[in-house]
């Protein structure tokens, strides 16, 4: 019985901490339900975050610039809305195809 509790606690801890570190993103069509209003720029120098889109949820990490896009809002750590207006955004990003080029302004 004690071993079962230890295993349960270990698995629960792993799940809890892995979820806390994830940067899973969901894109919404509604500005009112977004955590972040995002403007996309081609100029990496003006971006707050240079983002790499990962195909794998396990690559994503909190505040790392490596994002995994989920189809499910309930699975997301951050809900974003894309805007066409830079002045409306509270997060400016640039996408990169190079994982090594990811950058987050402090």
Describe the fold and architecture.
With 106 residues, the protein is of the alpha/beta class. 19% of the residues lie in helices and 30% in strands. The protein has a 6-stranded parallel beta barrel. The termini are far apart.
Rg, rounded, reads 16 Å
- What oligomeric state is this? single chain
Order of helices and strands: HEEEEEEE
Poorly predicted spans: 8-21
Number of strands: 7
Q: What do the pLDDT scores average to?
A: 85
Distance between the termini: 47 Å
How many structural domains? 1
Question: How would you briefly describe this protein structure?
Answer:
This protein has one helix at residues 2-21; strands spanning 24-27, 36-40, 49-54, 66-69, 78-82, 91-96, 103-104. It has 106 residues and is of the alpha/beta class. It has a six-stranded parallel beta barrel with strand order 1-4-3-6-2-5.
Search tags:
alpha/beta; globular; 1 helix; 106 residues; single chain
Q: Mind sketching the topology for me?
A:
Elements: H1 2-21, E1 24-27, E2 36-40, E3 49-54, E4 66-69, E5 78-82, E6 91-96, E7 103-104
Parallel strand pairs: 1-4, 1-5, 2-5, 2-6, 3-4, 3-6
Antiparallel strand pairs: 3-7
């Amino acid at each position: 019985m004690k071993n079962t509790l230890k295993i349960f606690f270990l698995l629960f801890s792993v799940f809890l901490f892995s979820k806390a570190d994830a940067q899973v993103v969901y894109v919404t069509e509604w500005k009112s339900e977004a955590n972040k209003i995002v403007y996309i720029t081609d100029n990496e120098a003006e971006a707050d975050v240079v983002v790499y889109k990962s195909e794998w949820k396990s690559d994503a990490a909190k505040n790392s610039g490596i994002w995994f896009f989920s189809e499910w809002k309930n699975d997301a750590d951050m809900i974003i809305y894309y805007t066409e207006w830079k002045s409306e955004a509270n997060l400016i990003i640039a996408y990169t195809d190079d994982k090594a080029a990811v950058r987050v302004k402090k």
